[in-house]
Amino acid sequence: MEAEELAEEGKGTEEESIAKRRRTAATRVVNGDGDESVDRIVLGEPVPGDEARRRWPESSDEEEEMKARCHYKTVNVNDEIYRLDDDVYVKAGPDEENYIGRISEFFEGINRASYFSCQWFFRTEDTVISEKLLKMHDHTHDHKRVFLSNEKNANLIECIVSKVKIIHVDPNMTPEAKPHAISDCDLYYDMSYSDAYSTFENLPAGCGAMSTGLSLGFALSGKNLETSWAVDINKYACASLKHNHPYSQVRNEKAEDFLALIQQWDTLCKKYVQKNDTTDPDTDVSSNDDEDANEPLPEGTFEVEELLDVCYGDPNSTVKTSLRFKVRWKGYDASYDSWEPIDGLSGCPNRVKEFVEKGHRENILPLPGAVDVICGGPPCQGISGFNRFRKCNDPLKDEKNKQLIVFMDIVDYLRPKYVLMENVVDILKFADGFLGSYALSRLVAMNYQARLGMMTAGRYGLPQFRMRAFLWGALPSMVLPKFPLPTHDVVVRGIVPKKFSQSVVTYDEATTHCLRKALLLFDAISDLPKVGNDQPKDVMGYRRAPKTEFQRRIRLNRKDMQDYSFRGNDPSEEDKLFDYQPLKLNKDDYERVQHIPSKKASQGANFRDLKGVKSGPNNIAELDTNIPRVKLTSGKPLVPNYAISFVNGKSSKPFGRLWWDETVPTVVTRAEPHNQIILHPSQDRVLTVRENARLQGFPDYYRLIGPVKQKYIQVGNAVAVPVARALGFSLGLAYQGVSDVDQAVLKLPESFIYSDQEKVVKSSVGFPGDEVVESEHLGE
Ligand code: SAH
Fold first, then answer.
1. What is its EC number (predicted)?
2. Strand 539-541 to strand 513-516: parallel, antiparallel, or no bridges (unpaired)?
3. pLDDT tens, position by position, 155-203
4. What is the predicted pLDDT for the residue at 385?
5. Strands (E), 413-498
């Protein structure tokens, strides 16, 4: 069973306070007998009252005695004159490095003490990127780089330590120009930082913000984003991708091999592909070509007719991984094709050249600097609650978390304009969120802007909770995308990791807004036909009309859904229901399932409703020893021991039946009913692949390829489609340069949301008050 599923079973209610970082400087003055003498503070030129009120309006959260009686433009501390906008070091706590701030205000309080206010700069380690990440072998942070935060407060003037020279550096400055630009300052900054959505972003540029209204129309009027290349190690996942995105180059290989391949491909392109088509004598291999000579070949030599494909790896399962070409041999048919290492092809440079030129023309592989977006969900199985050997101290040492590194290495190599990474929320929980911080750290060290958010699928119109972490990255020359705000209410479950509590994508607590009512299982699947446990056919008719708006929409064809993956002409059969098959239960389980009542029960119907189980003290399930154990036809017990002992008898999940008015916590990759609630409300079977796909928001036309279990895996692994769609909308806006500064989130336009759901007025989505908080892993 997967950790995410457990983590989302709402338990415990420990509320979480948003730990707001408030920097309180320490006074520097040492009492009478200390070494340090009392600072000599002389306030300079006063600011006239009306000007002061305009520039520094009183805020309500100021403490009474810190209210200003008079403002000043300068202050003299120990013969050093400080001015507004000066950057200073500020005394911090005993073992802390000095804080860094930009002075925005000098004033004398009602209590006659002298204060300054400043906007704080954060060092890298003051952000969510922890100190540990400063000492990584695969990336470094410049110790001179700081980030301007939006946090500000007042402290006593005596806490000012000294001036510090901080310059602003254009984030688009070339790496070559940078050392010179920063040679003469103590520190520099090129981005802002905010705890809200862990955002690292260019500073507001002040001009060029396009009218949002105009661009909304533009984005909705169909800017296309097409998947050019896709990589997955799972061949069935690749087959599904290829089926639904026929124009993509889908590569069934390890991401790490893909990285090695694109690096070598770039070298090949540089060697063989001429710019502007002018022949360069150095690389022109046609002049000394002996490949086509009509001389007989030495015995035992085969001639290469054509190169068909390229990879990095070891498709022949020999020992050496290397760059290889798939060779069609002259005089032989496809059954003799073989993968040959490049070294073995030195005798036929022309064939290699032809292949590289054609491949380059056809864009078979991405080249650095020429990619718009990289998106992916690198698996981090090393943090699963079930993995007893989790490496808490160094999660990156765990081979099972390696894909996160590979993903960032690919980003580092290709330098796309945009990055979107998805992952389970556990990357923000496990080992104090180390992996999440690592991902952010890599992006920031590569000079990307970055923003992290946790999005709940159900909040975008699905009867499923499913909270996931998403990380945006954007080159400094681009606008950093925002997180799209929820459109729907949802039944809340699960926990929010403390360190990242300000990253939950939700309305601000104070705002009143309208959300559509939460969707329920009935909305999503009540139109689908009745099928049995054994359903060999994977295509059938619908038999019934849609009953809800969700069903009407999910049945739309590609064209009406505005999905142009087929470039407009979709040959697939319409009005057919695909992948409508449940995982076939064995005879024993099927018999058990037939005994689970089909009813709405207070706790839900499950194994506890089977004969021979009773609930003891604390609702712990136990066998009723007063009656003989009920047996199945096979002789096995009706109630298996594992169901009783699951989570020490505390669970109600084994053989659980869903009900029409429920939502599911998370669609996972398996369909066995032994430890999750996955039985259909009124039929004796688990939910079909298609039903799960609908809960994930896949349009019905999206076919899945592979054995049934593999289809469940693909569906369970996916980013819920409505979430991806909303993120795509944000990306479209950012791509076109729409930026309204100071907002990490955006409201989706009404036209974007298709729903006949009634709206409910809420004053907030309810974070953190009604977000259920529980301990990290239950022993399930
Ligand atoms: N984002 C995808 C789902 C990603 S799930 C979607 O929305 O559909 C993670 C995927 O990583 C799985 O399909 C798994 O097969 C693949 N994977 C695991 N290890 C891999 C590796 N070493 N190289 C490439 N893909 C890998």
1. 2.1.1.37
2. unpaired
3. 999 999 999 999 999 999 998 999 999 999 999 999 999 999 999 999 8
4. 62
5. 418-424, 449-456, 467-474, 483-484
- At 255 the pLDDT is 97
Query: Ligand 1 centroid to 429 CA: how many Å?
Result: 21
Q: 405 CA distance to ligand 1 centroid (A)?
A: 14
On the 0-12 / 13-18 / 19+ scale of CB atoms within 10 A, 416 is: buried
Contact indicator for 240, 706 with CB cutoff of 8 Å: yes
Give the pLDDT confidence of 454-494 residue by residue, as tens digits: 999 999 999 999 999 999 999 999 999 999 999 998 877 77
Is the CB of 237 inside a 6 Å radius of any atom of ligand 1? yes
In order, the DSSP letters of 123-160 are EGGGTTS-GGGGG-SS----TTEEEEEEEEEEEEGGGE
First to last CA, the chain: 8
Say what the pTM is.
0.87
The answer to whether the CB of 440 falls within 8 A of the CB of 136 is: no
- In 3D space, the residue among 334, 331, 333 whose CA is nearest the CA of residue 297 turns out to be 331
Taking the C-alpha atoms of residue 265 and residue 285, their distance in angstroms, rounded to an integer, is 18
Cα separation, 26 vs 319, in Å, equals 63
Query: Is residue 768 predicted with pLDDT exceeding 50?
Result: no
- Domain annotation for the chain: domains and CATH numbers: 3-201 (2.30.30.490), 209-255+369-522+722-762 (3.40.50.150), 583-687 (3.90.120.10)
Q: Is 718 in the pocket of ligand 1 (CB under 6 A)?
A: yes
Any idea what DSSP says for residue 637?
A: B
CA 774 – CA 188 distance, rounded (Å):
41
Q: Please count the other Cβ atoms lying within 10 Å of the Cβ belonging to residue 477.
A: 10
**How far, CA to CA in Å, does 367 sit from each of 262, 376, 704?**
7, 18, 30
What span, in angstroms and rounded, lies between the C-alpha atoms of 644 and 616?
Answer: 12
Q: Does 652 contact ligand 1 (Cβ within 6 A)?
A: no
Active site residue 380: yes
Average pLDDT over residues 665-683: 96
CA dist 237 and 716 (Å) reads 12
Cβ–ligand 1 distance for 233 under 6 Å, the answer yes
Residue 726 token pair: 């909303």
Q: Is the CB of 403 under 6 A from ligand 1?
A: yes
Is residue 379 within 6 Å of ligand 1 at its C-beta? yes
For the segment 516-525, the average pLDDT, to the nearest whole number, is 94
pLDDT at 386 exceeding the cut of 80 = no
From ligand 1's centre to the CA of 21, what distance in Å?
37
Q: Where are the alpha helices (DSSP H) in 56-107?
A: none
Cα(698) to ligand 1 centroid in Å equals: 18
Q: For ligand 1, atom 5, which residue shows the shortest CA distance? A: 717
Helical spans, DSSP H, in 245-384: 255-272, 349-361
From 234, 422, 714, 723, give the residue whose CB has the most ligand 1 atoms within 8 Å, as the site to mutate. Answer: 234
